Automatic annotation (TrEMBL):
Species in which this protein is naturally found: Paenibacillus silagei
Alphabetical keyword list: DNA-binding
Keyword DNA-binding: yes
Name of the protein in question: AcrR family transcriptional regulator
Domain HTH tetR-type, first and last residues per copy: 10-70
Length: 200
């Protein structure tokens, strides 16, 4: 009996979340009200408050779930020699594909949260998670030790900015490339920079 109740509760929560995201898409977060959401979901407001404190709590939980997962998949071991080999062959680098697959899985929500109809705080949180993840990844892969003349936070900011620029463009344009295709594009941009510097 308890399992049935839990399933019903989880189903109600998912219904609230789905309708909330639809309303956000139509009207923007700041115009959505709990009353409006309850009517659309065919529940009373008391049922809503069993799951969330208010609409800000609902949005925060949805965003936190994505950001927590992103930080977990972002920190992977990257071997530059392997990346270079994949770049020369024009094939996607699997650890990068894994990250992009996660972004694709949550792409519609990310596009909404990062856009004008979302909350103004989220883009900064998203960028901070990416920057923090790159810092940990570069530290783990020994990149800071290889370039002692550059402060670690600057290396992390530089790496994060390239990733953010490419992935945000991809998300906002409706993800026209597969994660595999975008991984090849990303690798091309990384190694293109090295080529341009060498020619300067």
């Amino acid at each position: 009996m308890a399992e049935i109740h839990e399933m019903m509760s989880a189903g109600t929560r998912a219904l609230i979340e789905d309708n909330f995201l639809q309303l956000m898409e139509q009207e923007g977060f700041h115009k959505v009200s709990v009353r409006q959401l309850a009517l659309r979901t065919h529940i009373n407001r008391g049922t809503f408050y069993l799951h969330f404190t208010d609409k800000y709590d609902l949005l925060e939980q949805l965003q936190r779930e994505i950001l927590t997962g992103l930080e977990q998949v972002m920190v992977v071991k990257i071997v530059r020699e392997e990346m270079s080999e994949h770049y020369l062959k024009g094939i996607p680098y699997p650890p990068l594909v894994h990250i992009l697959e996660y972004l694709q899985q949550h792409g519609e929500r990310l596009r909404l949260f990062l856009g004008a109809k979302g909350d103004a705080v989220f883009p900064g949180q998203f960028k901070e998670v990416v920057k923090r993840s790159f810092y940990r990844k570069l530290e783990m892969n020994g990149v800071f030790a290889e370039h002692p003349a550059v402060p670690p936070e600057y290396l992390a900011a530089h790496s994060a900015s390239i990733f953010l620029g490419i992935t945000e463009e991809w998300l906002h344009s409706g993800m026209p490339y597969t994660p595999e295709e975008l991984a090849v594009i990303y690798n091309e941009v990384l190694f293109m920079q090295s080529t341009l510097i060498a020619k300067a």
